Amino acid sequence: MGRIEFWFEFASTYSYPAAMRIEALADEAGHDIVWKPFLLGPVFNSQQGLTDSPFNAFPVKGRYMWRDLARVCARAGLPLETPARFPQNGLLAARCTLALPEAARAAFVKAVYAANFADGALISEPAIVSRCIVAAGENPDAIMARAGDETIKAELKANTEEAMRRGVFGSPTFFADDGEMFWGNDRLEDAFDWLAAPLQIMSIGGTR
Amino acid sequence: MGRIEFWFEFASTYSYPAAMRIEALADEAGHDIVWKPFLLGPVFNSQQGLTDSPFNAFPVKGRYMWRDLARVCARAGLPLETPARFPQNGLLAARCTLALPEAARAAFVKAVYAANFADGALISEPAIVSRCIVAAGENPDAIMARAGDETIKAELKANTEEAMRRGVFGSPTFFADDGEMFWGNDRLEDAFDWLAAPLQIMSIGGTR
């Protein structure tokens, strides 16, 4: 049936529950997921002049976010531990996502998010990323080597630029196949509802 | 049964659907609402150094917000029009909320949000605020006069300071009677669920 684009940065906290939940929702509705890794650092910097996560730059928001994330994960039945570092450097994992065959991406992405947020592991470490590649049924040496190719580096850079061009300002972001954009784990169900039947919006911003 | 504190700034976009929805949810569950107007300007300025709404300061977030708000309002069956100005100055309306008897506050607050977001009226105008006081069944001259009292001005100032002390960084914010904080229209149902039965949180941030 439809297609949903899932744009994600591995460091992003609320992208963890979204990544763990999206497959079941897509399978249930018979939709395909397009996995779109990108880097949030350049986006935050370019759009808001930030050099750190807004949750670190504004501690009052960070304190609330960790508590809220704990509630969200408790509701979703997901384990949550303090990450080894926040935000983590997700560059290697993002490149490996693109280096993997499409069929292996879902398992890899979930393994990396679990390493970050359920295991408290350092996802910038090649040994941790390798373990996630193995969990996805692929050969870590081959994928790691491919992740260093210029074409993969360029693809990740192009993803980040495309994200900004399309108005992405955070992670997770979802696009329905008509281009409608949804931001945040809280909007995942709405994005699937939209794929099934776009809302009739008669007010401001309404185009249909 | 329980009590939910509803902290709100009249300029805030997502506080509009929250204000229009909260009474039905509270009534259904048999909970009381404590109406807590405060000013978001000093909060944004003190915590994030902002001198305007973040939706204006960062246009990419603003563009998404207006579209998302249109979807949220469409789902909730609420009309939405372009406000006369964004953000509006809600000082007079906030003071009038505190000048009103508690029983009249719900109707007044909803009338002001509707004036701002459904009618596109200027809620800084005394004539508009007076109309909202009438809608709440009270005498506008008496309430307007009371809104200028030093005690009312001091109460609004104290609300804003209390909000910051308790970690509020946006509107709408809800507190359950055990102090659990919820931010955003998206968390309104969660706040009521929490009042009925707090989640068991075993992960980070867990205190129970």
Features:
homodimer; 208 residues; alpha+beta; Glutaredoxin; four-stranded mixed beta sheet; 4 strands; globular
Please describe what this structure looks like.
Two copies of one chain form a homodimer. Chain A has ten helices and four strands. The first copy, chain A, has 208 residues and is an alpha+beta fold. The first copy, chain A, has one domain (3-196): Glutaredoxin (3-Layer(aba) Sandwich), CATH 3.40.30.10. Chain A has a four-stranded mixed sheet with strand order 2-1-3-4, with helices on both faces. In chain A, helix 5 (91-99) crosses helix 8 (140-147). The two termini of chain A are 22 Å apart. The A-B interface holds A 47-48, 58, 60-61, 63-64, 66-71, 73-75, 79-82, 167, 169, 181-183, 186-187, 190, 199-206 and B 47-48, 58, 60-61, 63-64, 66-71, 73-75, 79-82, 167, 169, 181-183, 186-187, 190, 199-206.
What are the SSEs and their pairings?
Two copies of one chain form a homodimer.
Chain A: E1 3-8, H1 15-29, E2 32-37, H2 40-48, H3 54-57, H4 59-76, H5 91-99, H6 102-117, H7 126-135, H8 140-147, H9 150-165, E3 173-175, E4 181-183, H10 188-196
Parallel strand pairs in A: 1-2
Antiparallel strand pairs in A: 1-3, 3-4
Helix pairs in contact in A: 1-6, 1-10, 5-8, 5-9, 6-7, 7-8
